[in-house]
Design a protein that fits this description.
By secondary structure, the chain is mainly α. It has five helices and no strands. It is globular.
Length: about 140
């Protein structure tokens, strides 16, 4: 790898793009999640609420991924986009775990056990899509 692959000054573009992508989507998800938990879930249940929220989150994720790749001038090669998605997934999971632990008093084990529910499985599937969006968008160029 040459010195421009990882940036001579600072982080690689895929790290910056992935971090921005994750943090923006996390903020959107936090807002939508509050609506889901406080408004929808008491009336519709956790699973139905997640089913309604997921397409909205995926649409935002697609748009934010495209914005982030353009904002940080990420090349449309599959390697950079794959690395961006991996970095974004890492940042997103750390942010979610951090909020769960520090804001809601959840243990890491409780966070992981939530994945075993239907709603948690839908969330994991959406996160896999989220991570794959930058790579999929490379094919559109």
């Amino acid at each position: 790898m040459n010195s421009t692959s990882f940036g001579v000054r600072g982080r690689a573009p895929w790290v910056k793009a992935g971090t921005a992508y994750a943090l923006i989507v996390f903020a959107i998800g936090f807002a939508l999640g509050a609506i889901r938990v406080l408004v929808l879930a008491p009336h519709l249940g956790a699973t139905t609420s997640v089913v309604l929220e997921t397409p909205i989150m995926l649409a935002f994720s697609w748009k934010v991924s495209r914005w982030s790749t353009r904002r940080f001038n990420l090349q449309p090669d599959r390697r950079s986009r794959l690395l961006m998605g991996i970095a974004a997934l890492f940042v997103l999971v750390v942010a979610e775990l951090g909020v769960g632990v520090f804001a809601f008093g959840e243990s890491p084990a409780q966070y992981v056990s939530g994945i075993g529910s239907i709603a948690g499985g839908i969330g994991v599937a959406a996160q896999i899509c989220f991570a794959g969006f930058p790579w999929l968008q490379a094919y559109r160029h």
